[in-house]
Fold this protein.
Amino acid sequence: MSRKSYAAGLWAALLVIWLGPAFRAQQSQTSSAPAPVVKAAAEEVVLDVVVRDKKGHEVKNLKPEDFQVFDNGEPKKITSFRLIDGKEAIKSCGARVPLEPLRQARLVTMIFQFRSSRSPQSAAVGADRGSTLTASGTDRGNLLTGSGTEARRLAQDAAKYFLKQDLPPNVYTAIMAIDHKLEVLQPYTTDPDLLRKAIGRATESQVTDFSADTERARHELEQTVGSNPAGQAAQAPANAPSAPPAAGAAADLDPAAKPVLARMLLQTLNTGQTNAMMESGRAEISALSDAVREQYRLPGRKTILYISEGFTIPQGFETAFNDLISTANRSNVSLYIVDAHGLGTLSTNQEAIDQLRGASQASRDEQSSRGRQPVSKDVAQLMDTSLESTRANYQMTLANLADSTGGFLIANTNDFRSPLRKLAEDIQTYYEITYAPEISNYDGAFHKVAVKMTSGNLRAQSRAGYSAFPPSMAAAGTAPHPFEIPLLTALDSHELPQAFGFASSALHFRGLSNQLVCGVVLDVPLANVTFQTSDAEHVKGRLAYVILLKDAQGEVVKKFENDLPLVEPAARLEALKTTHFIYTVHFDLPPGSYALETAVQDGESDKISASKTSVTMPATSGLAISSVSIVRSTKEREASTEDSDPFLIGTKVISPTLDPVVRKASTSALPFYFVIYADKNVDAAPQLVMEFSRDGKVLGTGVPPLGAPDKEGRIPYVAMTPLERLEPGNFTVRFIVKQGPETAEETASFILQ
């Protein structure tokens, strides 16, 4: 590799480099046409209420005065009232009017989720409109009373029985399954034969690979729409005979070894059981959140029928579980939940009893030793074990989720016929009640809603509440998470908070089809994030962010957000503070002027910083050069890395840094990354000129050699600049590309200390 000297002793050369990995998160995003948004009144809460008598029969002849509505304990006046029955709305005066078309259709999405040995990720995504049926089975052997095979059979029976209900013609059903991602086995249809075949595929196969089904469905949908350029331990019954000793087993063990080995094996079983339930909890909470999140976009009653073996709420996921309830209520989605264990013989409290017994024994051991023995792992985890035991009854979790969203739990039975018939009725018939909440502080807090009947013979079934979001968000049709509220509020404030340092930027590139691509980068030094002791071996922090990209009219065209728990070994804390959280995302974006607004929160201290900057996306014709990034590190390309990723160079993925401050004592050379886009209509080869300035004074220029463009006319480039002969100061580097009569240029800046 040749090097070239310049007047100021600067050089640049093509070099693919490898540096240590940064603390980095990356996500790819492709542009898509926006979904239709139905906007509701900003100061209005809409409730779907199902009313039944003591015998479980529907009641359809009620008036507004039969209902009482309370918001955080305060009585509210009903502002509108009607009975929704099929395709009609019946007013309190008895007049019948057809529903608007968007409210007439009923979509039922059946989603089957079985975690096999392949350990697929859970990422359920519900329909934009209608009902969702999610079946979740877990092949965990003896860890749970119901086996994966039995759960599949019960799920199949329940799904097929639901299809036998007298559903009206306006109910359209699709069949989906969750493997590593959401797979479509059957698009929306009213054909029962197609639906039954898809249900069989979802529930009979032990290897859940439905990618071929998805591709067939995708092809069918593309033909239809055309192109659009715009954990419970298994135990034997009490009266079961004792098993004979295993062949070859020792007749007995040393008395001193018996309790030690017994505790070891028991802890192995308990740990495996707890981990399985916790893993299930993380996956299923996330999947259900995905299933309900976007359903706010269209009006009408939406239902999820969730068939599950159950899950517990892991420590640290309480907020995520509450967010699930809040999101479902905000999206007007009710969850009806079936315990796939069916009619079991073991108590759902058994795991909680086992965990509490273990915690109690650890406490007694610690008291009896009086500090003479080293602290055991059981004692160290005593508080965690006690907390987990309080939530180990998975049916309580399922019941809480169902009741809080206006549904109910179906458990301890193998006969789902009666409750599923009620579900079919609920999809079509319910009361729609609205009232003015009269909120003075839109802080995102959860407001409890209670619907009571004036008659003691009637039972009302409705959601438990909603989150108080600002009217501007409701008017815009957005559905923010609760963690976004303080961040969005900070961006709306007259003076942006600056509690700690971070950087964000929007970079421009060209895509493989010569379209303009925007790459957004967020860079947060982890030295600015607060970490607290989690346990004897770990520290924890939390990082939340919201990124808005607005067009010249102030409309949000892209929005990215996340709330990240950060749990790391305590021994790595000091090293962690020297790393950065890097988030990148790319998407197609038309040329024009935009604004990038970013807010970041340190979750442990609740401190927030925010920034706003203007962005220009240039036209893509002729010779061009991308934005220039200073490279923090690179990592090997992963299987999920897209060919269209603008930060991909060869087999490496670039992790950029923003507004860098470089210490000469610890950095020998500084790498710059950019892409040159040659004009295919010009015969001359592109040339690169690099001009270096310090504190406004030009130091020197040079012309490093360029390689040949690839088949798309791209020249990805990493230029390495030695720092040994540079004096500290503020540096600017101009990257000037010439090809025949055309010229394009970009700049990059850094501070050398």
In short: The mean pLDDT is 75.
